[in-house]
Automatic annotation (TrEMBL):
It comes from the Bacteria. Residues 28-55 form a coiled coil. PANTHER family: CELL CYCLE PROTEIN GPSB (PTHR35794:SF1), CELL DIVISION PROTEIN DIVIVA (PTHR35794). It comes from Candidatus Merdibacter merdavium. The keyword Coiled coil applies. This is DivIVA domain-containing protein. Keywords: Coiled coil. The keyword Coiled coil applies.
Length: 151
């Protein structure tokens, strides 16, 4: 702002100097307001940077938390699956044991029925033989006057 002032008797033109000083004061005032606005904006940006830095760890931490939760869920699922498999094996063992027991009981019943059948066959044979002997021993008694029937 190399401004030239008119020279007067006692120095420079006072009005020109006063006008320049007024302009410079207004310019200084404008610069101070701009400077204050920039300072406020810098403070806001610094605060925002601080928040962003604090939150920058958050996604990573969030990811770790999610991974930990997923690992825990997998562990729980594996534990439940192992429990289900163990219970199924136990139930299968019980079912097989019950089936074998039922088969043994049925086989015992079949053997018993077979023995009873053999006993019954023997009894029937003996009774049939007795009846046969009785029939063989049965003598026909001559009936008097049977010849009259032929006539």
């Amino acid at each position: 702002m190399g401004m030239k002032f008119d020279r007067m008797k006692d120095g420079y033109n006072r009005y020109q100097v006063d006008d320049l000083i007024g302009e410079l004061n207004m310019h200084i005032s404008t610069l101070e307001r701009s400077n204050e606005a920039y300072r406020n904006r810098c403070a806001q940006l610094e605060e925002q940077v601080s928040r962003l830095r604090a939150n920058a760890d958050s996604p990573v931490e969030h990811l770790r938390e999610k991974e930990d939760a997923a690992s825990q869920m997998v562990a729980i699922a594996m534990k439940e699956a192992n429990t289900i498999v163990a219970t199924a094996r136990q139930n299968a063992d019980v079912i097989v044991s019950e089936a074998l027991l039922n088969a043994r009981l049925m086989l015992a019943d079949i053997v018993k029925l077979s023995d009873e059948t053999e006993d019954a066959k023997g009894t029937i044979r003996r009774q049939t033989e007795r009846i046969s002997r009785l029939l063989d021993e049965f003598e026909r008694v001559p009936v008097p006057g049977a010849d009259l029937l032929d006539k």
